[in-house]
Amino acid sequence: MQLASGFILSTQCYDSAKGISIVVWILSKQGPVKLISTPQKAVFFINESQIDAANRVFSEHGIFCEMKPVALKSFMQEQVVSCYFSSLKHYYNAAKRLKAQHIKVYEDDIRPIDRFLMERFIKGAVWAQGRQIKSHPYPVLTDTKFKKNSDFTPQFSSLSLDIECNGEGVLFSIGLVGANIDTVLMIGQPQDTSELEFNLHWCVDEIDLLNQLCIHIETVDPDVIIGWNVIEFDFSVLHARAEALGVELPLGRNKEKMQLRQGNFTRLTIPGRVVVDGIDTLKNATYHYDSFSLANVASIELGEEKLINTDNRLEEIIRQFNEDKLSLANYNRQDCILVMRLFEKLKLLDFAVVRSQLTGLELERMGGSVAAFTNLYLPLLHRSGYVAPNLGDHGLSFDSPGGYVMSSQPGLYKNILVLDYKSLYPSIMRTFCIDPLGLIEGLKSPDNAIEGFNQAHFSRTAHHLPELIRELSVTRQIAKDKKQPMLSQAIKIIMNSLYGVLGSKGCRFYDPRLSSSITLRGHEIMQTTKQWIEEWGYEVIYGDTDSTFVKLDDDLNSLNCNEIGTVLARKINKRWQRVLQQDYRIDSFLEIEYETHYSPFFMPTIRGKTTGSKKRYVGKVEKDGTSKLVFKGMETVRSDWTELAHKFQIELFEILFSENYSQELIIQAFDRYVKKLYAGEFDSLLVYRKRLGRHLADYQKNIPPHAKAAKQYLAENPHFAFQRGQIIEYVYTTQGVEYYMGKHNYDYLVYVNKQLLPIVRVIVNDLVCNNPFQPNGQIILI
């Protein structure tokens, strides 16, 4: 028997003569290895009381199923039996037929390959032992047994891929850039390429292009293929063109065929390789951009631009293919390079690996918080004697509330402290044992359980999430100590997603008693924290989800404030330990931290009202001898306000927070900005940017400005194209709203009323502008 150890690249599951075969490609230290399991069976569960009805269905439809008693029950306390299938075809047909007869089926939506790995607690890497049947070009082990492997970190070879095509998906070229290749495959007659820094391979037609792609990938032999929207676009187009042209795409190792299935999301399998998308990985790593387009992210992160920057990029790509193929090749290659540099700088592959090691999700499986939760929780649940529920099994219809947001006291303050609960919701779940299994077991024995909300009770001993959160917390602290930022960030994301998953109606474990016991406990904790702080002689002016804002005396310096913040945090944590032992007989894992000292701090009113706003404030912080303005929810951090508004708001708050502040200085700044605006000095700052949330044709009534500008431009330029999700740049002119094209006759009064005055009114609440620009150049403010 041969032993192998490596990181999972791809997985497949198919029917064979002996049963269901599980095929796993791994990357070992010696290179790729193909692993084929012993014959497996797929399984789901039904209630024991419905065995006879199920057997009648199986008999009627010729479905072979082996039923076995199992020590498991449903959340409704009904005993279940396991239904085993030696054929995937019978497995899926059985689930469909049983549901048609209103026979409840449990866990039939768990893919057999996912169940195979999760029940063995395999996450990312694996130990394997099997009989070697082939050694070249890649070793193949059969009759393989699998075990989890927590100690293997892969070293991938990667390739950046990008395609160019027309609007119908007809291919022009394919760029391939990596450690061992720098090539563009281009359809067309050979031209002189002596001045190019890369290899340009000419192809006769699309069929030749696709064949050359397979040849080049086989030659370079990458473990990972990266790109930008590469699964949903590039490989989807390649798959569609291959099918249309009757061409196979043996892009996998051993020349195995690529498989692509589209549904709620596109599932791509290239045997022996993995495809990782940059956009999905960025989103899962919680990066935020106004636009996730390659042009925008590369500009922000790399300071580099795409080689085609026209508004209608597709039109220029088509023109270059017809008239200037060398320029198109340069453009195609540059996109590959930008993707590769972004992956390297932001360590996106590192993040994907760590996420897979923590959750068991495939490297390319982004999103999937619910799937990650299921991977982690389901095997533990089975070992506690339960099968997972189906959506809605709880039968409850009420919704749980969101996070607690306290009414604010608006005004300008000298000293504000922010005390922040560290990972509040995971800490609540750990402290109060909030857990799907814990809820079911707690309801069975409420007298010895921890009381939640909405008649929820949670077992003190039968649960899994509290221990999982503890393990993640310990691992994250170790990662911080060892300066492993990717691991720390991945754990933080997983911990923060636990509540989101339990609060999602798309999760099988959703139960409003679970989610409300988290959020309402959060409300109680925030209100109690406010009460204690006020008992100790301080004023709380605002609170939001897990943060409490405390006002201190104006005559205190930063050292005094820091000391008070540290003392308050220590007192609150100690009091929670005492209170929770007394009231619930539980240990407190709540931890509040002194986070920030703002000096000064401004909390605005709600526009047009005297009451304080929520989730909107500005403060100044001192760090390492320098001061910095922090904006929350204000115009300067919102993408739907212009750069003019951003610039103006920053200047106003610098004035407001200065020692010689006066309302007159605010008015003078407003006066100065209006004059410069009308003089044309701010013309480059007047562009609005907003994403098309729908297809342009779908905007029929109450058309918003950005869609109106795009529609008007399209009417005048019918060759142009706008895509759903595209960022539209528009401006207000004397002719109304227009698509931004560089130079316009701007309607400056619109910008005064929509961009400058609202910001002034945040500070000078009763400011009214009447005919703001007079012929004599004076601003009249009443």
UniProtKB/TrEMBL annotation:
EC number: 2.7.7.7
Swiss-Prot/TrEMBL catalytic activity: DNA(n) + a 2'-deoxyribonucleoside 5'-triphosphate = DNA(n+1) + diphosphate
InterPro entries, per database record: DNA-dir_DNA_pol_B (IPR006172), DNA-dir_DNA_pol_B_CS (IPR017964), DNA-dir_DNA_pol_B_exonuc (IPR006133), DNA-dir_DNA_pol_B_multi_dom (IPR006134), DNA/RNA_pol_sf (IPR043502), DNA_pol_B_thumb (IPR042087), DNA_pol_palm_dom_sf (IPR023211), DNA_pol_type-B (IPR050240)
Location of the DNA-directed DNA polymerase family B multifunctional domain: 377-748
Lineage: superkingdom: Bacteria
Family label: Belongs to the DNA polymerase type-B family.
The protein's name: DNA polymerase
Organism: Pseudoalteromonas lipolytica
